[in-house]
Amino acid sequence: MVVQDIQKLLETRASLVYVVSEEEERVEKIVASAASKVLGKSAVPYTWSCLEGLRKGTEVIDATTDPVRALAAYLKIKDSSPLVFKDLHLVLDGNAPLVRQLKECARILRPSRRTVFFVCPHMVLSSELLPIFRVVDVPLPTFDELSRMLDGAIDIMPEAKSLRQSVTPDLKAKLARAALGFTAYEALDAFRSALMNRDAVTIECVDAVLAEKRAMVEKSGVLEFVTSETGTWEIGGLFNLKKWLSERGEAFSPDVAKYGLKPPKGILVMGVSGCGKSLAVKAIATYWKLPLLRLDMGRVYDGLAGLPEEAMRKAIKTAEAVAPCVLWIDEIEAGIANQKQKAAGGSESRVLALFLTWMQEKTAPVFVGATANEVEVLPPEVLRKGRFDELFYLGLPTKEERKEILSIHMRKLHLDPDQYDMDYLAASTEGHNGAELEQGVVSAVFEARAQDAKVTEHLLANCLRNVVPLSRTMRERIEKIEAWARDRAMKASLTVFDSRN
Ligand SMILES: Nc1ncnc2c1ncn2[C@@H]1O[C@H](COP(=O)(O)OP(=O)(O)OP(=O)(O)O)[C@@H](O)[C@H]1O
Ligand SMILES: [Mg+2]
Questions:
Q1: Distance between CA 155 and CA 474 in Å, rounded?
Q2: How far, in Å, is the centroid of ligand 2 from the Cα of 278?
Q3: Region 341-359: what's the mean pLDDT?
Q4: Strands annotated E in 444-492
Q5: pLDDT digits (tens, 9 = 90+) for 141-195
Q6: Which of 268, 321, 360, 398 lies at a C-alpha separation of 20 to 30 Å from 204?
Q7: E runs forming strands in 259-406
Q8: Which is nearest to 192 in space by CA: 175, 177, 180?
Q9: Domain layout of the chain by residue ranges
Q10: Chain centroid to CA 141: how far?
């Protein structure tokens, strides 16, 4: 795929190409293979780095560690070999002669068949330079590429023969799938360390690669690999949401394509605090048996994981590589509220635009489960059809739902709901959200243990009554959220707009 992209750029005589990739060696190989196909076997690429200067294979061109002189030297060369230029991100900042030289290169190379590929881990081009470059994003290795890398890794192990004999097609596929999301370096490293000191390939090797993957996902700085044990059966109420999920249970199996169906893009779960929004998204991953990656929008914007746009791009790339998976964006409006305060054109609006375009166009089976509290700040483009498949509103639980939620939390603490008057407990907790019901049950158990007594119905009712529900202190706010949701005809939990029944 990437080889074809690079080939096309060579065929169409692109002059300056900016390749966003952390994998210099892989890009070098891709350019070399594309150049030999398009320009012939003799078109071995030149390379430049700030340490080695300009070189072609073992032939070093003297006095070219300075990037301006290196590009000048390349312009004088007569053969049509492309140049793979590394380190631009390290030498461009404040280098006015280099900016000028890049513009000269674009002008001089335009009528020729020669191309310079700048390989950088992130985007450093200013708006002044961007128009003279073609930008290519190199996707991470595919399943097939990883399978080939695995063969290569096995071949160089001391016990190669017995490893080759023991690896079944199933284990091979599992190992390659476990490495999806890795760069080529990372995949080779993970394979090598998983196979080290072994004479047979076993399921433990897959676990070892998965453990590395977990570390890798977390290294991205904005994504977290969440281990979720929440099943939908641990969520009370939310009938419509559960029905929607169960109807799409097969959505991520390979068979879905057979019926011409596409996997769903995602849902936006909005509503009152403590009603189970985060819980619902976690349950989706468990229910569909998919890995769950949590994207921290706050981290995307705070700059600690790199420039916001880069952080978002990286998160998307990693999620796509790990696909099929659930990408959980908790409190999606955190970033959007921010971006409203900033002038349009700032990195925040670009991050949102990037995310929305991706949502619209994505084909990779990444199911986005987004949650939002401050629904009013969501701009209409987030809610437009084509982005999320469905918008769910989670309101305060109804009496029946409260009964279910109380039962779930009582069972978790080894209390048998059949021994209690659940109708009475549910009726006396009108206005409580799921989190508050849970809190009441937990404090009853604590209190009983402190007194070395049983959890009586009376104690339970008292403890539940002592929890002051948010709906009382924030009545106006909740009514506003409900009105907002109702006006937009959101699909909601069965009887969500009336918690008093
Ligand atoms: N419908 C429910 N069934 C069972 N437990 C629930 C339900 N709703 C909430 N809870 C309990 O309350 C806890 C908090 O819920 P959760 O974090 O999902 O709420 P939230 O809507 O994401 O709130 P916030 O807006 O504050 O993030 C859950 O971990 C769960 O124990
Ligand atoms: Mg939450």
A1: 65
A2: 4
A3: 72
A4: 491-492
A5: 878 889 999 999 999 999 999 999 999 998 998 898 888 778 888 899 999 999 9
A6: 321
A7: 266-271, 292-295, 325-329, 366-372, 390-394
A8: 175
A9: 2-137, 143-219, 226-394, 399-473
A10: 16
* CB 95 less than 6 A from any atom of ligand 1: no
Topology match between the domains 2-137 and 226-394: yes
Q: Whose CA is nearest to atom 24 of ligand 1?
A: 273
Among 4-18, 42-56, 296-310, the range scoring the smallest mean pLDDT is: 296-310
- pLDDT category of residue 258 using cuts at 50, 70 and 90: low
pLDDT in tens, 75-105: 999 888 999 999 999 999 999 999 999 999 9
Q: Which two tokens stand for residue 435?
A: 């989190």
- Rounded to whole angstroms, the Cα distance separating 372 from 380 reads 14
Q: Is 279 in the pocket of ligand 1 (CB under 6 A)?
A: yes
Q: Is 277 in the pocket of ligand 1 (CB under 6 A)?
A: yes
Reduced to 3 states (helix: H, G, I; strand: E, B; else coil), residue 288 is: helix
- Domain 2-137 annotated CATH 3.30.450.20: no
Q: Which ligand is nearest to the CA of 280?
A: 1
Mean pLDDT score across all residues of the chain: 86
pLDDT value, residue 233: 60
Q: Which of 438, 442, 443, 477 to mutate to test the pocket of ligand 1 (most atoms within 8 A of CB)?
A: 438
CA of 372 to the centre of ligand 1 (A): 13
Confidence category of residue 273, pLDDT binned at 50, 70, 90: confident
| Cβ 395 under 6 angstroms from ligand 1 | no
Minimum-distance ligand 1 atom for the alpha carbon of 373: 25
> Which class is domain 399-473?
mainly alpha
